[in-house]
UniProtKB/TrEMBL annotation:
Domain SB: 271-339
Protein name in UniProt: Tumor suppressor protein
Location within or outside the cell: Endosome
Gene3D superfamilies tied to this protein: 6.10.140.820, Ubiquitin Conjugating Enzyme
Residue span, UEV domain: 1-146
Record family assignment: Belongs to the ubiquitin-conjugating enzyme family. UEV subfamily.
SUPFAM superfamilies: Endosomal sorting complex assembly domain, UBC-like
PANTHER family from the UniProt entry: TUMOR SUPPRESSOR PROTEIN 101 (PTHR23306:SF3), TUMOR SUSCEPTIBILITY GENE 101 PROTEIN-RELATED (PTHR23306)
Keyword Coiled coil: yes
InterPro entries to which the protein is assigned, alphabetical: ESCRT-I_UEV_domain, ESCRT_assembly_dom, SB_dom, UBQ-conjugating_enzyme/RWD, UEV_N
Length: 341
């Protein structure tokens, strides 16, 4: 899971997800030993929620030693309106929680004044963790287990201050310089930025590929439109020529008498298919007329029913064949026109 997917899933139930992400990023950069996670957290009503959390060690400030305090900071879904919950996370056989520590309640819950007086507008995670470091540095809440004493209470009269001093002496570590801490923060931030940039580049590459496909479709569409435009111009020119010819014919024959016009001279087919279609149309009209007059003869009793039915059957067969042949001729004409234009 990359960083973007992690944030989208982790902050899904947070109304103030942008502010939460900003504060988490600042805290993780300022305190690189705290890692951002999602952790199961049991609420006071017994329900378990997955909360964004900072889990890791706080390095206490002291001129003579470094003591690491393992803690967990859990952000509730309505953060920052509600203060976070902080718990010590001592490691078994390594740490002992100091008894009667003034800011440790119950099972390791941390309560410091900054957290008790939490104000969403004025307080934030970085300042909270800084207060934790200062408070723990003055009064460490845990000590390292002493091998001499173990985990038993065989010696009830031991001096707690001596154990703390001895444990602190054993855990002395060379403190990191500000330059080293800054380098660690920069490296971590650069790694996060690199991962985010890789995700952005991947998304942009996908968008670029889609744009190229869309460009191809647009180019193909433009070519198709140009072809249709050319065909339209050709057809438009032909229609104009035909219209011009018809207009001239009308002007020429406007003054002529209609009585002397032969219809056969007006409708002259220019090819075999047109001639065949005209003949089929005429045959169909003749059949319709014959059927009409047969009905009249039957009504007037001038023809017997037997002869009437014979004629009707014969004409129906002829009409069916005429219609089918006309349809076939029409389809051939349309096919020829589509090839031509």
């Amino acid at each position: 899971m990359n960083l973007i997917q992690f944030w989208n899933q982790a902050l899904q139930k947070y109304p103030n997800r942008n502010e939460v992400k900003v504060q988490i990023d600042e805290a993780a950069i300022t305190f690189p030993d705290l890692l951002t996670k999602t952790s199961a957290f049991r609420l006071t009503n017994g329900m378990v929620e997955n909360l964004v959390s900072l889990i890791g060690d706080l390095v206490l400030k002291h001129p003579n030693y470094n003591l690491r305090v393992p803690i967990g900071i859990y952000l509730f879904h309505n953060y920052p309106q509600q203060q976070p919950a902080i718990y010590l996370l001592p490691k078994q056989n390594i740490h002992i929680v100091r008894p009667n520590c003034p800011f440790i309640k119950g099972r390791g819950q941390v309560q410091i004044p900054y957290l008790i007086n939490w104000k969403p507008i004025d307080h934030n995670l970085v300042t909270l963790i800084q207060n934790l470091v200062e408070t723990f540095s003055k009064n460490p809440p845990i000590i390292m287990k002493n091998k001499d004493f173990g985990t038993t209470n065989n010696n009830q009269n031991f001096n707690l201050k001596k154990i703390v001093a001895k444990t602190i002496t054993k855990t002395i570590q060379k403190p990191k310089t500000k330059k080293e801490l800054l380098i660690e923060k920069i490296k971590k931030r650069l790694a996060e930025l690199n991962e985010e940039n890789e995700k952005i580049i991947e998304e942009l590459s996908s968008e670029q590929l889609q744009l190229e496909k869309n460009q191809e479709k647009i180019s193909s569409g433009i070519q198709s439109l140009q072809l249709q435009t050319n065909n339209y111009n050709v057809l438009s020119e032909k229609v104009e020529n035909l219209d011009k010819t018809l207009t001239e014919w009308i002007e020429t024959n406007k003054s002529k008498s209609l009585d002397n016009i032969d219809p056969d001279q007006i409708l002259i087919p220019i090819d075999i298919l047109s001639k065949q279609m005209l003949e089929l149309y005429a045959r169909g009209c003749a059949i319709d007329d014959t059927l009409y007059y047969l009905n009249k003869l039957l009504q007037n009793g001038n023809i017997s029913v037997t002869n009437y039915l014979k004629k009707i059957r014969s004409l129906s067969n002829e009409e069916f064949m005429t219609i089918e042949l006309a349809g076939k001729v029409f389809r051939i004409q349309q096919q020829a026109l589509s090839i031509l234009y």
